[in-house]
Amino acid sequence: MSELARTPELIAAEINLIKHETRRTILVNSVEIGKRLHEVKSLVPHGEWGKWLESNVDYSQSTANNLMRISEEYAPMLTRSNSQALENLSYTQAVALLALPSEEREQFVTENNVKGKSTRELNKLLKEKQQLEQMLEQAQKELESERSALKTVSESYDRLEKANTKHYEEAKKLKEQLKEAKKSGNSDEVDRLQREIAAKNQELQSTTARIKSLEQELMEKPLEVSAVVEKVPEAVEKELQELRQGAAVTKYKLQFEGLVSGFKGLLGALAEIKETDPASHERYKNAVAGLINKMSQAL
Predict the structure, then answer these.
(1) What share of the chain is helix, strand, coil (3-state, %, to 5)?
(2) Of 284 and 63, the one with more pLDDT
(3) Which range has the worst mean pLDDT, 180-189, 216-225, 276-285?
(4) Do residues 278 and 156 both lie within one domain?
(5) Coiled coil: which residue ranges (predicted)?
């Protein structure tokens, strides 16, 4: 049987096979070296670790630390049968990916074709991913802050409404007592009741003014929620398109859920007002309708 002709295509295939085999063993060997570095570090006297590395294996402490971390982080992953994506990592890629949580690492490698990227490209991709996650975290914090502020205003409004109702009932009783005092001719009691009524009227005016102020604040608050503008570098547009779209959708869902929840609470409050204060119900209902109209115009 004649020997297979040595063509450029055949030689290229052989070279690529050797490259693949070499690349496949880099991470496995790094893990094994890291294990042994862990072992020997416990045997070397304290303070002699750096000297031992330099004299015996020609490693800096930084390189040794990276190798030991690789052994800790990647050894469990490489024991799984579906770890082919990780096996093809270079040493520098493996070190760069240590920046990711272990539970995200393999998925990130698969989804972003890490094998075909240079270390510089990989570091850039990791940095942009981190920036995007920070923006999402900031968006969540701002949303929670707005929800908290709105809740505080709403609770203050409820307390003032109850206080206002109480003042109104007390003033009403005092006025009835004043009528009786005038009929009986008790001038001292008349003077006392008139002073109390004046004080209650002042309290009513104060709480009513504060209620009106909070009504305005409640109407305007949903329109004041600050938007988080994603200033993503142009280079990320190509590499992180799906991630960025996911971030926008997540932010939308959070805002939408908050809006729906708030509107349900608003409807519940209106229902209570209708039962306890029918005369005011239509005014509050119109305020909600006006807010909805403003929100619709803002879309």
Answers:
(1) 85, 0, 15
(2) 63
(3) 216-225
(4) yes
(5) 115-217
